[in-house]
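User: Quick sanity check before I run a bigger batch. Here is a single chain. Can you write out its predicted 3D structure?
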Amino acid sequence: QAGLVIDELIGRQQVVIKPLGRTLNKVRFFSGAADIGDERLILVLDTGAIIEEFYSITESAELASPAAEEI
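Assistant: Done. Predicted structure follows.
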């Protein structure tokens, strides 16, 4: 199981997520950006990619340390 912990939820708002564009499209763990109305932009986390990365690292660590299975 995996989860994300957030310190604070500031508010809730419907937004349109737009792609990051050519310059930033290779930035990991972000799915896009959104304008929140007061001339501020927010980056939107790609929670699926973050969790997949977590599982990938966890599996790699388990495969790299077979001694842990012997205990």
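The helical segments are 47-64, 67-70.

User: Great, the batch can go ahead then.
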